[in-house]
Amino acid sequence: xxVMTQSPLSLPVTLGQAASISCRSSQSLVYSEGNTFLNWFxxxxxxxxxxxxxxxxxxxxxxxxxxxxxxSGTDFTLKISRVEAEDVGIYYCMQxxxxxxxxxxxxxxEIK
Amino acid sequence: xxxxxxxxxxxxxxGASMRVSCKAYGYTFRDFGISWVRxxxxxxxxxxxxxxxxxxxxxxxxxxxxxxxxxxxxxxDTVYMELRSLTSDDTAxxxxxxxxxxxxxxxxxxxxxxxxxxxxS
Lengths: 112, 121
Fold this sequence. Notes:
- The complex is a heterodimer.
- Chain A is mainly beta.
- Chain A has strands spanning 4-7, 10-13, 19-25, 38-43, 50-54, 58-59, 67-72, 75-80, 89-95, 102-103, 107-111.
- In chain A, strands 2, 4, 5, 6, 9, 10 and 11 form a seven-stranded mixed beta sheet that branches. Chain A has a four-stranded antiparallel beta sheet with strand order 1-3-8-7, with no helix packed on it.
- Chain A is globular and about 40 Å long.
- In chain A, 36% of the residues are buried.
- By secondary structure, chain B is mainly β.
- Chain B has strands at 3-6, 10-12, 18-25, 33-39, 46-51, 58-60, 68-73, 78-83, 92-99, 115-119.
- In chain B, strands 2-10-9-4-5-6 form a six-stranded mixed beta sheet, with no helix packed on it. Chain B has a four-stranded antiparallel beta sheet with strand order 1-3-8-7, with no helix packed on it.
- The relative contact order of chain B is 0.32.
- The A-B interface holds A 37, 39, 41, 43, 48-51, 54, 60, 90, 92, 94, 96, 99-106 and B 35, 37, 44-47, 50, 59, 61-62, 95, 97, 100, 106-109, 111-114.
């Protein structure tokens, strides 16, 4: 199975400041046709996960442009340019290159 | 408006079986598959399995392979997840998520509201 490793696991951030979460996979997530199936999800307290980013850097509809994804191969990053109160929650990376899909451990973002 | 609506919370005894449903609204059901993901209390997300709603093909995580069955009813646009031989470790929120399908190449782009299953004697 592909192991996904996130850091940090806890991320206290001041409102208006930037935040960055790293995700590393145990093997390349590049699929045969060139797509890289790395997704980012946000889970607010008491809610279902919500996909924010797909295929490394594509924002889902309705996701604020302060969220951005980058990376390649085995190293990926989710950045929030200016954290807002509604961004509190747990963020997960997930690989969809092969079954079983696997998730990172989650990064808990909180406001300082 | 795309929605996945799951069945309600359940309490089961150890050794019993559970069945959770996931009904799709707002899109062509057979164009997308459905994956199931669970989340134990205070824990992260764990993928359990996938079903292609067009042809019924399934993929299961090795951990659940002997205990889980996914089925699809195209007449009601519903997917069912059955988990057998329940233990307290199966206490969790169970989510369905829209996924890779016959005509749509997406991964987990829409999620159900979750179904809490509690295993208790």
